[in-house]
Amino acid sequence: MTTTPFISRKGMTRRSVLGAALAAVPFAAVSGPAGADPAAPAVTRLMLPVPTGPHPVGTVQLHLVDRSRPDDIAGPGHFRELMATVWYPARDVQRYPVAPWMPAGALQAFLTDVGFSDLAPLGPVTAGHVGAPVRRSSQRLPVVVFSHGAHSHQGDHTVMVQELASHGYAAVTVAHQYDTYTEFPDGRIAVPLYGRQAPTLPGDFAADLRFVLDCVEQLAAGCNPDVDHKELPAGLPGSLDPQRMGAFGWSKGGTATACATLADERIRAGLSLDGPMQMNPPLAGDLDRPFMMMSARYTRATDPEAVAFWSHLRGWRLNIQVQGAVHVSYGDNEALFPQVAKVRGWSGQQLQDVIGTLDPDQAVKIQQAYPLAFFDEHLRHRRGHLLDGPSPVFPAVTFLP
Predict the structure, then answer these.
(1) Is residue 109 classed as helix, strand or coil in its secondary structure?
(2) Pairing of strands 267-273, 240-250
(3) How many CB atoms lie within 10 A of CB 304?
(4) The pTM is what?
(5) Which residues of the chain have pLDDT under 70?
(6) Going by DSSP bridges, is the β-strand pair 170-175/141-147 parallel, antiparallel, or unpaired?
(7) Main-chain phi, psi angles of 48, to 5 degrees
(8) CB-based burial of residue 50 (10 Å sphere; 0-12 exposed, 13-18 middle, 19+ buried)?
(9) Least CB-packed of 51, 159, 161, 385 within 10 Å?
């Protein structure tokens, strides 16, 4: 098993966020369960919440190469190489195994980097059944593509992704080469490369998203974009709808989503999960398609880049902020860290130092409800009332003017 060094740029990364948060937690609490309640049951595996939609979920990984972009780091003759994962409503899932949150090698590398290497045996599994056939339907599936944050990975928002798939979407997550943890079919483990120049700016992430849209169009046409000619799940080719495609992303991926949505009219609706909106050159141009911002750390009250981007939104727009949320709150952290806290014996304050004061159960429900409502309204024209204003079901959600 080889390891390929990958890179990111300066700025807010998952590693720096968790490092800063964990610095506030006493070392003894992080390094072992000595303070744990001896009567508490042992945690044998971290768990993700079950999606709420009516359909079981299937998933398949794709190995993609963008031959329009040479890879100078890999050397002559190499091109931008990505792993992507498609999540979709499935059928007859019983005989198909469930997918792990991350491939084992990538998970070990990731947990080692963020200081939790001993938790690798507890790695969660997802609701996705690997290779299960696509659910038959009279309509093609609307598509959303997802962009992760700096030094993160494509499974980091599985709660949202599998929720969308359970409600009838095809969700495609991309592992941004040189700024992620992933595993290639030949066994290479990719980790972020620090301290070198590499294509890891938001604009590079946006180019990846646009390439993935090209691959979605190939799938929609009945073709297989996988460079290894991997066998695809039954029913996947020809099942996606290239006329109903959206995008969302967290942190740097949220900025990349804004950049890609501005540049590519195939993206009918974009959603940023606490994206800084910081680019050089800055995001520019008016956008007349729907865009939603879920803010925490990067708000219009504190960041001029967010203000500038908001001012260029000429179509449907919405900015919500969740009280008590921090930058890592919009993701699987809210489901996983309370379980890590039990393993570690953290106090309630120590857990809040990592994930904020937002109730974790409420945080998970917000992640499941608001992205689904947004894409339902703008890709399926299924208008509900959740996005109209404050809801008693989600009292922590504030609608910003």
Answers:
(1) helix
(2) parallel
(3) 11
(4) 0.91
(5) 1-43, 195
(6) parallel
(7) -100, 150
(8) exposed
(9) 385
Q: What pLDDT was estimated at residue 41? A: 54
Coil, helix or strand for 257? helix
Query: 198, 51 in Cβ contact below 8 A?
Result: no
Judge contact between 360 and 338, C-beta under 8 A. yes
Written as one letter, the residue type at 247 is A
Indicate the CATH number of 3-29+46-381+396-400 among 3.30.565.10, 3.30.1490.20, 3.40.50.1820, 3.30.70.120: 3.40.50.1820
The phi-psi region of residue 345 (left if phi > 0; otherwise alpha if psi is between -120 and 50; otherwise beta) is left
Residue with token string 């590499």: 198
pLDDT of residue 16: 53
Contact 146, 226 (CB under 8 A): no
Question: What tokens were used for 379?
Answer: 């890709």
CA 152/CA 13 separation, integer angstroms: 7
Distance of CA 387 to the CA centre of its chain: 21
Task: Give the 3-state DSSP-derived string for 300-353, with helices as H, strands as E and coil as C.
Answer: CCCCHHHHHHHHCECCCEEEEEECCCCHHHCCCHHHHHHHHHHHHCCCHHHHHH
Please report, for the chain, the start and end positions of each structural domain, with discontinuous segments joined by +: 3-29+46-381+396-400
Instruction: Find the distance separating the first CA and the last CA of the chain, reported in whole Å.
Output: 52
Q: What pLDDT, on a 0 to 100 scale, did the predictor assign at position 42?
A: 61
pLDDT tens for each residue of 268-292: 999 999 999 999 999 999 999 999 9
- 197 token code pair: 């120049």
